[in-house]
Amino acid sequence: MDITVCRACDVALLDQYLGSPGLTSFHARRFARQQAGESTYLIGRLDGRPVGHAEMRWTGCRAPEITADCPEIGGLEIGAELRSRGLGSALIRACEDLARERGLPLVGIGVARDNPRAAALYARLGYRPLADYLDRYSYVDTDGRERECVDPCTFLTKGL
């Protein structure tokens, strides 16, 4: 898998191959944060096609329950047909490398409490639980209504 930083021309491809719910493009939001210097949005590709992504949020976790001063790996996704092939691990390592390049000693990642498969991956990669929190986000559904989502999560950290 090739991993590159997202470019403006990648957003439509991400929407095509790894869509977002409703009318809101999560990819466009992540790219906008990257353009503002708040994050680095990485795209994983196989044969030129986007098959996964991860966002290294330099501003850290926004949840008030999380007091760790570290960047957060978020938006990690691998296409369902390609999971369990090491692609998610490669994207996480690429995010960790970005943090190391900045001389940062710690990185975090959130995992939904109903996602034991992801939690097991993060544990294998050396992430340890720090605190429980509620991940809050919103999107505009296909009817044009804004939907608020709240997911119970655990924030994990790893020393680099």
Topology at a glance:
Elements: E1 2-5, H1 10-17, H2 26-35, E2 39-46, E3 49-57, E4 72-78, H3 87-101, E5 106-112, H4 116-124, E6 128-140, E7 146-159
Parallel strand pairs: 4-5
Antiparallel strand pairs: 1-2, 2-3, 3-4, 5-7, 6-7
Helix pairs in contact: 1-2
CATH class type: Alpha Beta
Query: Structural class, please?
Result: alpha+beta
**Unreliable stretches covering 5 or more consecutive residues:** none
| Main sheet strand line-up | 1-2-3-4-5-7-6
CATH fold label: Aminopeptidase
Summed up, the domain count is 1
From the alpha-carbon coordinates, what is the Rg to the nearest angstrom?
15 Å
Provide the succession of SSEs: EHHEEEHEHEE
Provide a count of the helices: 4
- Measured as a percent range, the helix fraction is 25-40%
The 3D shape can be described as globular
State the end-to-end distance: 23 Å
CATH architecture: 3-Layer(aba) Sandwich
- Strand residues, percent: 35-45%
Query: Residue-averaged pLDDT, rounded?
Result: 93
Main sheet makeup = 7 strands, mixed
Protein architecture, described:
With 160 residues, this protein is of the alpha+beta class. The chain has a single domain (2-159), classed as Aminopeptidase, CATH 3.40.630.30. The chain has four helices and seven strands, in the order βααβββαβαββ. The chain has helices at residues 10-17, 26-35, 87-101, 116-124; strands at residues 2-5, 39-46, 49-57, 72-78, 106-112, 128-140, 146-159. A seven-stranded mixed β-sheet has the order 1-2-3-4-5-7-6, with helices on both faces. Helix 1 (10-17) packs antiparallel against helix 2.
